[in-house]
Amino acid sequence: MLKTVTSGTVTSHTWYLWSLLRHTLFAEGTIHKSGYCVAFGECGENPEVKTKNLDHIVPCVNNTPAIKPHQNTLDRLKTVCPVLYDGENTRLCCSDGQLEALEKSLQMSAVVLARCPSCKDNFYNIYCQYVCGSNQALFINVTRTFDALKVNHVNGTGVLEMEAYYSKRFADGAFDSCKDVRLPSVGGYAISAMCGLYGSTLCNTKHWFDFMGDISNGLAPLKIDFIFPDEHSPPIGQGMQPFDGKVWKCSESSSKDAPSCSCNDCQASCPIIPEPPLPEGEWKIRNVEGILIISAIIFCTLMLLFLLYLIGSIDWCSGDHKNLDHEINLLKELTEKDVTCSEKLSESLQNYLGIMFEKWGPLVIVLSAGISMVKLTTDPVELWSSPDSRARREKDIHDKYFGPFFRTEQVIITAKNPLNYTYSSLLFGEKVFSGILRKEILLEFLELQLLLQYMPVWSETKNQSITLKDICFAPMNPDNPTDTDCTVNSLVQYFQSKSSNLEAKVNATHMGKEGTIDWHDHFLYCINSPLSFQDTTGLQMNCMADYGAPVFPFLAVGGYEGQEYSAAEALLLTFTTRNFDPQDDHYQYALEWEKKYLEVVENFSKCSPHLNVAFMSERSLEDEINRTTAKDIPIFAISYVVIFVYIALALGEYSSCSRILVDSKITLGLGGVLVVLGAVFASMGVYAYAGVPSSLVIIEVVPFLVLAVGADNIFIFVLEYQRSSRKKGETREEHIARVLGNVAPSMLLCSLSEAVCFFLGALTKMPAVQTFALYAALAVLFDFLLQVSAFVALVSLDVQREEDNRLDICCCAKPVVPPKKKNNEGYLLPWMRKYYAPFLLHPLIRVVVFVFCFCACLVLMFHVKVGLDQQVALPKDSYMLTFINTMNKYLEVGVPTYFVTTSGYNFSTIAGMNAVCSSVGCDNNSMMQKIQFACDFSNRSYLSIPASSWVDDFIDWLNPMSSCCCNKTQLSPFNKVEKRCRQSCMKTQHDGVIRPSPDQFNKFLPRFLDDVPTQESTRFMAYHSPLVTSQEYTAALKNIRELSENITTTMRKIPGTAENFEVFPYTVTYVFYEQYLTIVKEGLFNIGVCLIPTFVVCCILLGMDILSGIINLVVILMIVIDTVGVMTLWSIDFNAVSLVNLVTAVGMSVEFISHMTRSFALSIKPSKLERAKEATAKMGSAVFAGVAMTNLPGILILGFANAQLVQIFFFRLNLVITLLGMAHGLIFLPVILSYFGKWFLLSSGILLL
Q: Most buried of 44, 63, 76, 141, CB within 10 angstroms?
């Protein structure tokens, strides 16, 4: 038996041996010349073919001249092999039965190859020439036969093997025309199903022809050895010569009316597409970052202006005395005429506020009962995606027509100590296999899959047992699925999830070598040809999953380079289940099954010490977030307790150790904390009555914010009282009222600024930020009202207790030690007055280093990352962290995405179909073609696998060559096609382009879908490339939206398309990452509207003091910019959570800044420097004790939280905000005021007293 040589060109030595043997066996007496046949007629079944997908009828040996066919044969010939038709001169080497069998055989390939007419015609020509060509004897040589009379009871000698000589030019041309033809339904290439062992990746001309001539493929009726001599090969001899007929390039028309292949199926037909431009990089000026240069210019300009100011305003011989003397002289020269309207307004307003708060009575607002009606929102979609956002609207459209996105449960398994090994395959040669691809591990893996697939789960809610089939996605049998109908993707599905198939072995001979074929070979075959129903390895097993669909390699394994799947380091197991409405009983079934699934996989992980098992379910992320929230509640509670302890101890005015229990303010501190909590509860109650939902962000952040604001006001009020001596004849209540009159305007200034700031912040469209701003605004207002009412009453009671010399907490008891006279100023105020303020404001120390910090942070601000990675939302000990890290490392394909079309497009017109499809006759800028172009640049588009198209599938289904659509009413599409279709739905078109008319479209589409279709919305599925960071997810969304908008623009130009028609992308992640497309603008808007009231309220409450308002605004803006800059240094991303904290930062900055600014503005010291010193010492000490030292202990406790989200966005970010607020308020602001403060504001106001 002669074997096919391994290359197109044979050596001379081999050639002569082969020629001698051929002459000896067959050539002698055989006529090889033009017009002669070597085989004709039918000699029955091939006795050596065991597995049959078709009737394997072999021809009979017949070395006679070609015959003139009958008319019926000629008519069939015009359809099947038009290249052989030559009118009256037509001669054939096949009978009508052979031609009919050839037609039936070719139709199986025509289904996919007809997309490219040139490929189809070249493919047909290969078979037509050697089966029916009139010059058959020139290039065909029979090499082995059998006695058909004995075997099939047919007179004649049957052909078992033959040699077919095609020129290398012809063979390569035919292969090149077909190698890029696609299968849109599966996103692969047609050649992958026609190249046997090698698939589309390894397929070449030889492999392709070898598969055609291999009887083990279930299609070939006899073995054919294809040989491809080229111009350098020796002559064959005996008059034989290789067939070297016309071959059409895929970019050429194979006939006058036929179009060339489409770009999607032929690279040569594609227009030259310029590579998309690179994403815009950093703005640079001569290779230096532009923002760095701008910041340097700003810094130098400010420094220059500051130096000019110093030169013009300071007497370098006497320091500040010149300035001070000037201010005192001006003060002496002032008269009532010099008092401006603005200053009169300011003085009148301060007096009015003082009188109003002196008479403020106790006011208790009881709204906390409403907290029982609070609805807590935990759904991330509801939290971070606006109901009227584009992503939510598109999600609603998708879910309306196609149902919610599937639920996914996935397991990724890797070996702890992977030892690669080399497998010597008889068919594929030596292949390196990774340590995870060992039979014992695969059997263990299969055991886990079957356990999960068949495990019963008892439903407590419905008192019944459920299994995977009750909730799974079963595309082949959705109405009544069995266990094997569920979509389960894994490597063992190449073996139909049967251990017997994994254990199967067979001895075989290949290329003269003997060896064993086992699971390795079947695996290698299936990863190259996942659509194969039967391998050609000798095992003859199916590659399709038991649920009836192919398993593509990227769904079965991960962690490989290129397409070296055997070196994959990870096994993937994916269960796809349906998503249900929460009101549906099946939704609870899904949750209960997933809970049991997690338990089983966790136990498997513990029992498999040699494997790394990473796993997740659809419920995992929410479960883990809820778990860590519950786990961190004690941390927040401890934080509040620490703050309470600090307030209680710091408020005390201690005179001696023996009087600590009298001088302490534990009860008052507790009352202050309760006032804050009362304000928070009242705010929550009001919004609960109004039906506004709450969230965990509100519960965790708002108390901190209000506590910072409240504690500051508490300290300012209590310290002012302690530092104020009671006037002669003044009662306790009058003393307290006078102190309240002094500090309440400052408290109002800050509280009102913050409340208006937060109310304006609620204008954002981001639900979580919006509700946070609303809750915070009302809580701040309630806190202020309760402090000037309820807390004032508590202070009065505490003063009465202390004056009666009673113990704190146990107020009924009195100590034996008599009361001592106290130092009204305490310890902090004298220290700051004597040391800190003079040091800070000394002429040699007043250097504005903050301007440099501001400019540096301005540069860093432009480098902050936007987004929130999933890992950050999880606790450090979460199994989901392991899964996400494993997924990012090993998965080679990202999430599936859909291109969804809305109503208003007519798919039934030819123009409508051509604007969508990708096969022959389709537009070069069709939807499918544009998506394909995008996939060609996956590094820019983040698309890796092009979309599958039901329009292309429908057109292929209608193709009369496929016999899929027969004009018989009893037929169903795909599964019950008659063996012979006498009348196809569509007639063969002269140009090869199949397009139904609108009537045919609407008639046959229901049959194609086996259902009543709706064209209100359709979808086309593609795959993203692997996406790891939130920046990649955001970029992917941005790019795919741009692609969809481009497609929409093109399709709207099709006649009959509605103006509001659109194509939009959808996948489950888009609603989460859409916010990052606009969050920078949202952040600027929110912070901008929050800054406005800080300026306006400050101006109004200080009597239109614009300068003080500007200073307030500038310093708060600096705090925010510096905070964002430090976020870059400390790896804190900019997202909705950090935006909430930045809005909070504006509020907290008001506390650090506004009290100091007002104290400076109301000071009657003769110079700006002296007023700055007084404000720093007097109000700075209160701010330091009330804001900074109240926040810091609680924030430091949050550093011990388990949740990374809390550690990063509540510990790190709040610590940064507090430290920067303290630095700007207690260091930078006094320096600025000493230079640029309005020195004469109330100096002239003295005249009004």
A: 141
